[in-house]
Amino acid sequence: MIPKEFLKYSPELFSKGKRGIIFIFKKNKKTIAMKLKNPESKAENRIENEINFLKRLNKYKIGPKLKQYGTTYFCYEFIEGKTLKEFLKKNKYPIKILEEIMRQCEILDKLNINKEEMHNPVKNIIIKKNKPILIDFERCHFTNRPKNVNQFKQFLRKLNTI
Q: What domain range is 146 assigned to?
């Protein structure tokens, strides 16, 4: 499962999702995350899809920095921070963070990329040093009618009514 070249770093299980499994390890004093396909998932080509979108979006400073990849995995800079949900519980006026998320959604829309997660992004945005970082691009796809901005606006409206 874990490529042999990474076993020397003693990767530890960090998270297990429906389609992916994430391990973390230290390399050159930096924490690196490695995402592999969850063997229980029937979803096809999700790792390859996420690699392709991260390569494209990193040029716009969106997503975690892609470090290395292969056919069955990819490594990226581990994002240590709070989920958007945790952040919003403790910050009453998160205007700058929300504006930056909206800016990133606008870029995604201009690139005709739909992330498919922005209607409820509470776990797919990590706040690190007061900067939001979108994660989890495995479901991304190109479309002529992207909905990231609209989905995020719907999410913000739900927050106001809670």
A: 82-161
Q: Indicate the DSSP class of residue 92.
A: S
In this prediction, residue 153 has a pLDDT band, given cuts at 50, 70 and 90, of very high
- Nearest CA-CA partner of 39 in 28, 31, 47: 47
Residue pair 32/73 in contact by the 8 Å Cβ criterion: no
Longest dimension (CA), the chain: 50
CA distance 123 to 116: 13
In this structure, the answer to whether residues 72 and 93 fall within a common structural domain is: no
Residue 154 has pLDDT above 90, yes or no: yes
Shared domain for 69 and 86, answered yes or no, is no
What pLDDT digit, counting tens, does each position of 67-110 carry? 999 988 999 999 999 999 999 988 877 899 999 999 999 999 99
Q: Are residues 58 and 93 in the same domain?
A: no
Are 122 and 88 within one domain? yes
Q: Secondary structure of 65-109 in the HEC alphabet?
A: CEEEECCCEEEEECCCCEEHHHHHHHCCCCHHHHHHHHHHHHHHH
Residues 40 and 57 in one domain: yes
